[in-house]
Amino acid sequence: MPEFLHSERAPGARTNYLFEGPESSVKLRASFLVGLIAVCASARYLASQAKSKPMSTDERLLTRGWWPTKGSEPRDRYVGTAACASCHAHIVETQKTTPMAHASMTANSEMFAKSDVRSPLTFRAGAYSYKISQTTPRSVYSASDGTQSVATPLDWAFGSGHFGQTYVYQQNGIFYESNLSYYPAIQALDFTTGHSRSAAPSLSF
């Protein structure tokens, strides 16, 4: 009978065997296999949980593959919704009815009609008055101290207008979020969430 991994004690003491014989060997292998299966199952479960867990934009930027804000692909490579609809017509049509599809829009004359906002919108902070007015082809964001004024066309409106709507404009190739947003609850402009509620130190946006 084969014997493995035994430890010798003092003369006359009983010899203690970790395992011996073919039956013990089979049991050890079976135990090892069960343990290995359990480890593999746990690893697969953790991997599936990691895939299903929502990731932030910062985390997405660190992963491989495409993501809208990575900027790794030139804009002329985006083929647009129409190209997607040629194979996924049902998905495209369904998406048009979702709140997400109405979460942003071009800041043009249709913006006020779609969000049921009355133009012009005005707000005063300190010595400065602000106005968002409907023009053609785009809406205009302006500020004045009563003597001088500055203005810039708006590019986008974010938010369907149900809870709020924030405006985005571009200067020198950089997009900026307006410091004022429209809130339906008060049917007026107020400071954009996250922006300082103090009056601007100078005539600016």
Written account of the structure:
- It is a single chain.
- With 205 residues, the chain is an alpha+beta fold.
- It has 3 domains: 3-52; 57-97, no CATH class; 102-191, no CATH class.
- It is built from 5 helices and 10 strands; from the N terminus they run E-E-H-H-H-H-E-H-E-E-E-E-E-E-E.
- The protein has helices at residues 21-52, 57-62, 81-85, 89-95, 109-115; strands at 3-7, 16-20, 104-106, 121-125, 128-133, 140-144, 149-158, 165-171, 174-183, 188-191.
- Strand 5 and strand 6 (140-144) form a beta hairpin.
- The radius of gyration is 33 Å and the shape is elongated.
- The model is unreliable at 1-8 (pLDDT under 50).
Number of helical elements: 5
**Strand portion, in percent?**
25-35%
Cα distance, first to last residue? 90 Å
Poorly predicted segments: 1-8
- Helix percent band: 25-40%
Task: Give the CA-based shape.
Answer: elongated
Counted beta strands: 10
- Structural class, judged by helices and strands? alpha+beta
Order of helices and strands: EEHHHHEHEEEEEEE
How many domains? The number is: 3
Average pLDDT: 79
How would a textbook summarize the main sheet?
Answer: 8 strands, antiparallel
Q: Please give the radius of gyration in angstroms.
A: 33 Å
Helix and strand arrangement:
Blueprint lengths: L2 E5 L8 E5 H32 L4 H6 L18 H5 L3 H7 L8 E3 L2 H7 L5 E5 L2 E6 L6 E5 L4 E10 L6 E7 L2 E10 L4 E4 L14
Antiparallel strand pairs: 1-2, 3-7, 4-5, 5-6, 6-7, 7-8, 8-9, 9-10
